[in-house]
Amino acid sequence: MTSNSDTDTDIRPFRIDTAQADLDDLHDRLGRVRLPDAIPGTGWEMGVPVDYLAELAEYWRTTFDWRVWEKRLNELPQFTTTIDGQNIHFLHIRSPEPDATPLVLTHGWPGSFLEFWDVIGPLSDPRAHGADPADAFHLVIPSMPGFGFSTPVTQRGWEPTRTAGAWAQLMARLGYDRYGAQGGDWGSFVSQALGHVDADHVLGAHVNFLPSDPVGTPAELDRLSQDDKARYERNRRRWDDEFAYFLLQSTRPQTVGFALADSPAGQLAWIAETSRNGPTTLPAAPGGAVDRDLMLADVTLYWLTNTAASSARLYYEVAHSDEASSSSYPLHSPTPLGVAVFLNDSLLPIRAVEERDHIVHWTEFDLGGHFAAMEQPELLVGDIRTFFRELSR
């Protein structure tokens, strides 16, 4: 689906420059939040608790400082370029190690390029972080079409395979002939698709999300071990209980976009709900799954760029794509695949049903969740290093 007709191949430096009026408007809206009622004694079973959201929204209004994050982010080399008619924003961090391996990192929803904040230094400059400089990577971290600064989206059809084609063009445009791919959530699908559409140039793909099909025949279930059956049932329960947002964004992303584009508290609750891992791990709270300020930086990025609807449309595009009706989606490829499984991920892969010959690396961690780069950056970095080190043997 990738066009070769682009005539604008320039790579343009980019800086974040938020208008103060936009921040004033955000703070004003947060000061006038109208909260829903709640049944006393209920927790997260019906959604985000009112007292939790009220406290977090007040912290966002009075304490969180977007200008601090804007300054930090502008210290990183950011660019935009046009590929397949789409504006693409990306970070490009060259390692001080000249022989570093190029690596494209792809986020998912409700994430952004900010997901990789804590892994940028260790991956690009391992020497400075007490690790082997042979494990260094040149990092390319794009914003998915419709996310953050990769806007506006003016065409239909931006699903993971088309995005992978754009990433292949981006890496070629940057002069990288051989490179690796890594991603979680939708970034996992994009990374795997890269191994299909650009197999001659992709060294390997490492993912920290590989959901096994939650539907199986009785005969298939009978062949699973007791542990795998328990994992299958756990996935099924989670799918039934926690994935209403998936159905909504796959069918009516524009409708939910109105509410999220008009209410920062609504946008905050929508992302907080999906950032939670399991019944006891709260996002953006002391000791929680995700650092409070990092998550609020991500939410602020969604708000300031007004990308609630455009990012949600990814689900619709996938649900209505030709690949979605095929049993081979995401596209399988001969490119070596590495899998990191974090215990509290939303859906866990079942190794026995992942009949993919190109899986050459599989690690199970007894902690962490869906946002591994934000929750367990050291473990994720270590597994990425191990996977690509193994490929060079």
Would you give an account of this structure?
The chain has helices at residues 20-30, 50-62, 66-74, 120-124, 160-173, 186-197, 218-222, 226-242, 244-251, 253-262, 264-274, 292-305, 308-319, 372-375, 377-391, and strands at 11-14, 78-83, 86-93, 101-106, 137-142, 179-183, 202-207, 337-344, 359-369. The chain is α/β, with parallel strands linked by helices. Strand 2 (78-83) and strand 3 (86-93) form a beta hairpin. Mean pLDDT is 91; it is low at 1-6.
Task: Give a concise summary.
The protein contains 15 helices and nine strands.
Question: Uncertain runs with pLDDT below 50, 5 residues or more?
Answer: 1-6
Secondary-structure element series:
EHHHEEEHEHEHEHHHHHHHEEHH
Return Rg in Å: 20 Å
* First-residue to last-residue Cα separation: 35 Å
Mean pLDDT: 91
DSSP strand tally: 9
Helix content: 40-55%
Structural class, by secondary structure, is alpha/beta
Q: What is the topology, as strand order, of the major beta sheet? A: 1-2-3-5-4-6-7-8-9
* Total of DSSP H or I helical runs spanning 4+ residues: 15
Strand proportion:
15-25%
Coarse shape:
globular
Can you summarize the main beta sheet?
A: 9 strands, mixed
